[in-house]
Amino acid sequence: MFRPIPFNFRENAERGREAVEKVLDFVADQPCNPIGRVSGALSSFRVDVIDTPDRYELFAELPGFHKEQITVSYDDNNYLTIKAERPEPDMDVRYICRERRTGTFERSFEIDGIVKDEVAVSFEDGVLHIVLPKEPEDKGRTVFDIK
Question: Of 12, 59, 72, 143, which has the highest C-beta tally within 10 A?
Answer without folding.
Answer: 72
